[in-house]
Amino acid sequence: MASLKSLQIVSGLLTFVLLLTQLLAHAHVVQAENIDAADTDRFCYPESSKNTRRSCECSNVSASPWGNRALRIDCSYKDYRAADLSLVLPLYIDSLDLSWNALDSVPILSSDSLHQLNLRHNNVSQLVAGNFKLLTSLRELYLGWNSIGRLEAGSFDGLPHLQVLDLAHNNLHLLPGKLFAPLLVLGTLDISWNRRFNESGEDLYTGLGVNWKLSTLRLDACSLGDLHLPVNAPLKELSLRRNQLKRIPAQLPETLLRLDISDNLLEELLPEDTFNLTQVRQLFIEDMPLLQRVMANALAHVDVLETLSFQNSRQLSHLDAEAFGPTMTTSTSTKKTALRSLSFRGTMLRTFNSTLAPLFTQLAELDLNGLPLQCDCELVWLKQLPVETNGRCYKPNRIRGMLVTSARGDAFSCDTWPRWAYGLVVLSLIALSAAGIYLIVMGLRPHRGVTMRRKVGAGSPYARVTIEPNRQENPHY
Ligand SMILES: *[C@@H]1O[C@H](CO)[C@@H](O)[C@H](O)[C@H]1NC(C)=O
Ligand SMILES: *[C@@H]1O[C@H](CO)[C@@H](O)[C@H](O)[C@H]1NC(C)=O
Ligand SMILES: *[C@@H]1O[C@H](CO)[C@@H](O)[C@H](O)[C@H]1NC(C)=O
Ligand SMILES: *[C@@H]1O[C@H](CO)[C@@H](O)[C@H](O)[C@H]1NC(C)=O
Ligand SMILES: *[C@@H]1O[C@H](CO)[C@@H](O)[C@H](O)[C@H]1NC(C)=O
């Protein structure tokens, strides 16, 4: 009984406290509104830009359940330089878009409410120490599409809440050690399209101080020939598109769920490439310029894989019958795999061994668009798949261009003789008929002994003439 009563008191108290905070929040809003109207105007509609198209767009958004104000300011495409901006941002500002301007440095802005700052598509070439230290609440910082090449140590000081950092399409190469160390809760880091990033030499985690708990890392087009990431870092997504990798790096975090290794220099996919990718659910091996073969067991270890794509790997012409492991062959104990979506769209594969049938039958999606399929008896099993693959026959000619599913089953036949045997048969037929014709002609010819002699008698103009050689010219005769 007593405990019930105390519970009631506690809950009553809680309600009261909640109400109080709500009231206080509202009071704060009411009181502040008058102060910041001028402040907002100063930023959104500056005197210098009156009646021009250069003023920013400011809009109210309600961001919190308390109905607190949050201001979103869009200053994109205004041709601003750093000197044009007032450095103290309005109260309640939540996001500021300064993309597509002509900023050649990052203005040292000040706000304790700004969550998102977009500086993409400017002309920033360097960051200085403490560049963002007055933006204490910043969560997302977009610096992509500039030409940032020089960063002072401490460029990211004072950003303990930053979760997303975009540095793509810049010129990062030599970076100060522990550059990213102040970013304690960084979750997403994008360094893609920094063509000289391979020269940085430093290890991302130990050298550059990237937050250990980073979950998404993008390193596309960084000229990487190799990469080592700590096996026990809890990274979830990694994109390594368009680098110079000849093998899938052997040492990658074990927790990876999504790996994009597209557009690299692998020629074959081997078992050791995927050996350590035990948790990967989405694997992209697309746009490979050199990949020709997927070898036996190359994909045998990725048990939890759900999505796999080889799309547009234009040289890929061989998929081993046991690429997904040998257990698929024994139909009695079909290995249950998680694979749901598989794409070979735009590759050069001509056929699939029927040992793959149990696997393909489980798929919810199988894309065979644009394959030069050899529709013979080896491939007739493909007609039975429950999903529409959009695969079309390329050979034999009489069903070229037809969907595998709509071509007649009996058109999927196999030549039991080799090609040269056909040639031989044709040749012997020709020879035989020539001989036949000769015999027939000979048979129909009038008999020499009977008719000819009668017509070509001695008195006939066709009579045989014997020309005697001149004895004088040939004295030896
Ligand atoms: C935002 O709303 C407040 C009142 O809630 C108003 O005073 C202010 O002018 C508005 N600002 C903009 C930019 O719409
Ligand atoms: C960008 O900055 C460079 C120097 O860092 C300068 O030469 C170039 O003119 C600038 N481009 C624009 C469009 O302002
Ligand atoms: C970085 O990549 C470039 C371009 O591929 C290459 O010339 C250079 O040698 C590489 N540098 C290092 C340190 O790997
Ligand atoms: C798998 O990872 C371990 C530990 O990093 C490494 O020693 C091994 O060489 C890797 N295996 C393959 C086949 O790459
Ligand atoms: C299909 O794979 C099995 C097992 O690897 C092999 O014995 C068979 O010859 C293959 N069939 C064709 C047509 O390649």
From TrEMBL:
<feature type="transmembrane region" description="Helical">
    <location>
        <begin position="420"/>
        <end position="444"/>
    </location>
</feature>
<keyword id="KW-1133">Transmembrane helix</keyword>
<keyword id="KW-0812">Transmembrane</keyword>
<keyword id="KW-0472">Membrane</keyword>
<keyword id="KW-0732">Signal</keyword>
<dbReference type="InterPro" id="IPR032675">
    <property type="entry name" value="LRR_dom_sf"/>
</dbReference>
<protein>
    <recommendedName>
        <fullName>LRRCT domain-containing protein</fullName>
    </recommendedName>
</protein>
<dbReference type="Pfam" id="PF13855">
    <property type="entry name" value="LRR_8"/>
</dbReference>
<dbReference type="InterPro" id="IPR001611">
    <property type="entry name" value="Leu-rich_rpt"/>
</dbReference>
<keyword id="KW-0433">Leucine-rich repeat</keyword>
<feature type="signal peptide">
    <location>
        <begin position="1"/>
        <end position="32"/>
    </location>
</feature>
<keyword id="KW-0677">Repeat</keyword>
<dbReference type="InterPro" id="IPR003591">
    <property type="entry name" value="Leu-rich_rpt_typical-subtyp"/>
</dbReference>
